[in-house]
């Protein structure tokens, strides 16, 4: 064992810039691997949080074969469902348990920055969500004969933006969540808020007009609208849009989502806890 | 083992080149709301030194070490590690330090190998998995999940992660708490080995034996203050030796010229500043009166005496001392 235990001096420390461990992206990959392994070991969590939403999603969309507009609306609605359960509810439990296990504290004593740790811990759930969306979209196009998405770019953007908002709310709520059991309760209001939005679990045009217009401003309103417009290249009223038109038409939605992002990041920054509360 | 026997006086400290001061603390204070856990401490730790922070629970050891690790900001005062601010210059300091927290920090479902692999990706120029597990004697536990490890094995895994990046400065917060004697000895060997390689080590402990065996210098904390700093033998030297024996209550033990006397029923204790002289006088008295001194013992002070003397003295501030762990 001797000989291996030599100390680095300051000169060599500064010339090691090329080391992968110093790059935030590789730090995040390492944390993602850790989370994926933990998920693989914890079958109950995997089944509940990963498999079940996708199964339900596939079941819920299956009767919409060949029905372009209702089909895409339904796919978008179950996508929101998956996102809320995975990137919001499940991620809240992940942040809370990593805090209680002092994994977050240990990571903070290492070379990764706070931001990298928060992103890295969230990355596995976000990747799982995106993968599930791809499965769902492929199923919709190949098995249900729905059209191929017209503007995948705005869709990807909104999936990432929506995930970021969900993740930031998770970080904030994890502060008052002590266990995965507690998360059922602490995320209940936000889960309801995110799902009880027209386009999410509420059908479009099912609520009184004024109320629907108000509810649209909840995060899932603009989120689902961008997905629908990106997929179909037409507005909810049935007006066709050019490729460029889909960008213009989704601008207000992105504006509202950016405000939500700012709010959720503020809350995360204000409330997130790195260590368990004592006593 | 190297004992540097450094001088305690600040004059000697100022003669030391600044490059050699690896940890510098000036007037550090750290409060949680109204509670002040650390109340203005100052210390310097030199390159290659092994420094032990001693104290009872709630004395402020963990708070101090966590401020140095950069996990908590100082409320006031100045803290430098390798000449850098551990919070502000985090990115520059962390690749050169290793940290072993007081508790855990693992995802229990991962195996030992997976845990070390994951941390290797988060460490600059790390040891291999085999190297580091060999070092802490966990090679045969490589495929066991972390939550199946015993307390001592878990602590050794944490030690492995702390030394994974060949740190210049190593922080160990109660590294051997919960370890069996074999694990403890192994940990001491690892720490000594690192020190020989030039690593500066700051550890907290409430095992006096550990501090006495390992440390070049110790500091004793009480109620958020440093109450004594120096080489263990220097701290001990300031304390009186002890003479104890049992005596029937009918006899009155004599006054000794360099000692204070304490009688508790049949148990007599002298604290002597001049052991040889006082002991001679005592034995002469006993022989002259043909008195039997049962269970007679005479010994110089130990670090434990120093600790009990200094740290466990009744201190009003201890009453609302918070648990040391985390807030």
What is shown here, in short?
The complex is a heterodimer of chains A (279) and B (327). Chain A has 279 residues and is mostly helical.
Polypeptide structure, described:
The complex is a heterodimer of chains A (279) and B (327). Chain A is an all-alpha fold. Helices cover 71% and strands 0% of the residues of chain A. In chain A, helix 4 crosses helix 11, helix 7 packs antiparallel against helix 11 and helix 7 (152-174) runs parallel beside helix 12. Chain A starts with 9 loop residues before the first helix and ends in an 8-residue tail after the last helix. Residues 1-17 of chain A have low confidence and may be disordered. With 327 residues, chain B is α/β, with parallel strands linked by helices. In chain B, 31% of the residues lie in helices and 27% in strands. The longest helix of chain B is centred in the middle third of the chain and has 16 residues, at 181-196. Chain B is elongated. Classes of the chains: A mainly alpha (279), B alpha/beta (327). The interface between A and B is large, with 44 and 50 residues.
Beta-strand percentage range of chain A: under 5%
The structure class of chain B reads: alpha/beta
The major β-sheet of chain A equals: none
Helicity level of chain A: over 70%
**Most extensive interface, chain pair and sizes:** A-B, 44 and 50 residues
Strand share of the residues of chain B? 25-35%
Tell me the radius of gyration of chain B: 23 Å
Arithmetic mean of pLDDT of chain A? 89
Low-confidence stretches of chain A: 1-17
Instruction: Describe the main β-sheet of chain B briefly.
Output: 6 strands, mixed
> What gap, in angstroms, lies between the N and C termini of chain B?
37 Å
Unreliable segments of 5+ consecutive residues of chain B: 1-14, 314-327
> Multimeric state of these chains?
heterodimer
What gross morphology of chain B would you assign? elongated
H and E order of chain B: HEEEHEHEHHHEHEHEEHEEEHEH
Helix and strand sequence of chain A: HHHHHHHHHHHH
Q: How large, in whole angstroms, is the Cα Rg of chain A?
A: 21 Å
Count of separate DSSP helical elements of chain B? 11
- Shape of chain A, please? globular
